[in-house]
Amino acid sequence: MNTQWLRAETHRRMRWKNGKGETIEVAVHPPGATLETFDWRISMAAVVEDGDFSSFAGIDRTLAVLGGGPLGLTVGGASPVQLAAKGAPWSFPADVPCHARLHGEAVTDLNVMTRRGRWTHRLVRLVRGELLHLSATTSVCLAAPGAASLIVDDTPCALGALDALVIAHEAVVCLVAGEAWLAQLEPVEA
User: Fold this and answer.
1) Can you tell me whether residue 122 is helix, strand or coil?
2) Which of 26, 56, 39 is nearest to 187 (CA)?
3) φ, ψ for residue 9 (rounded to 5)?
4) d(CA 10, CA 169)
5) Alpha carbon 108 to its chain's center
6) Chain-wide mean pLDDT for the chain?
7) Cα–Cα dist 73/139, whole Å
8) Helix (H/G/I), strand (E/B), else coil: 8
9) Residue 1: pLDDT above 60?
10) pLDDT tens digits, residue range 75-131?
11) Which end of the chain has less neighbouring CB within 10 Å, N or C?
């Protein structure tokens, strides 16, 4: 089994690209890539006030609310979209102006970003008891907001809160307890 465990205490903390907050980088590819050089990136952030999101040229982004909210997002001239904890994730181009507006408590969000034309992604919330067959080149499972228990190819895996498991092979995953999100990442074939 080709997996890598990423403990919450080892996630990298860094300032937002626009300097207005802090990001917790869960995983990035290639390893050690910067905000300008990543092919894909998974991160979390606290949104504590209304404001503009950082712009990332050539990047596609999916955002989910892990806690707090709800959060309103206005991308370009489109109508605002409301995102809530336990709600569906929402995908949008990260290089189009995006304004966030809190409609309640501060929000903790989960971001999955891929470099357009090089990688694609899909973000789903795992459903307890449901078998999910992974065929993506890389899948990252994040226990959020609390701890989660999984079975990966018949092997029990207990993840602490905000721990992640990188799975770089075809696998069958089942969420046994807790809550978890799964990002599936694929390179674009030339």
Assistant:
1) strand
2) 39
3) -70, -10
4) 23
5) 11
6) 93
7) 26
8) helix
9) no
10) 998 999 999 998 999 999 999 999 999 998 999 999 999 999 999 999 999 999 999
11) C
Predicted confidence at residue 175, as pLDDT, reads 97
- Per-residue pLDDT of 32-64, as tens digits, reads 999 999 999 999 999 999 999 999 999 999 999
Distance CA 36, CA 66 (A): 26
Query: Tokens standing for 33?
Result: 């890539």
CA pair distance 104, 85, nearest whole angstrom:
12
Which band of pLDDT confidence, cut at 50, 70 and 90, is reported for residue 174?
A: very high
Q: 142 near 110, Cβ under 8 Å?
A: yes
Tokens of 165: 């498991």
Counting Cβ atoms within 10 Å, is residue 140 exposed (0-12), middle (13-18) or buried (19+)?
Answer: buried
The sign of the torsion formed by the CA atoms of 37, 137, 165, 183 equals positive
Which amino acid, one-letter code, is at 72?
G
**Eight-state DSSP code of residue 9:** G
Q: 103 - beta bridge partners?
A: none
